[in-house]
Amino acid sequence: MASSCANGSVRRASRRLGQIYDEAFLACGLKATQYSLLSQIARSEQPKMRDLAQVLVMDLSALGHTLKPLVRDGLIALQVDESDRRSRRVLLTEAGQQKYAEARKISERVSQVFDKTFGVEETVKLREALDFIASEEFARSLLDELQSSET
Q1: For residue 70, which of 21, 76, 88, 102 is within the disulfide window of CB 3.0 to 4.6 Å?
Q2: What's the CATH architecture for 17-118?
Q3: What are the structural domain ranges in the chain?
Q4: Any transmembrane segments, and where (predicted)?
């Protein structure tokens, strides 16, 4: 039976996928959330923490908390930004680059199986829909509509 609440459905699906990805990443000692962070850091090339938090739709304190084990394990380093000393940049260390390369192979394998199981076209549509839902544009539109319907 389909849920009547989009939020509940997305959260359940997210938890299920998180469990599947966590199981897959056990082989390299990461959690799915940690891989996502390493992946975004690698793509962003030394992002500022604020920019990284924005892309990941997280607040700074939650990001800082999530980064601590990666710093502790020597996979990332936090460095004061040269142009704005109030900001810190997040960098992959050499060990982090190696761990990311190892985990990326696992992620690619899970993605292939996901595509095969869910369907390639459906997967593309799902990612597009979820990316839109995660966007500032969608959030602003939805919140504006909620506020205007209250008055």
Answers
A1: 76
A2: Orthogonal Bundle (1.10)
A3: 17-118, 119-151
A4: none
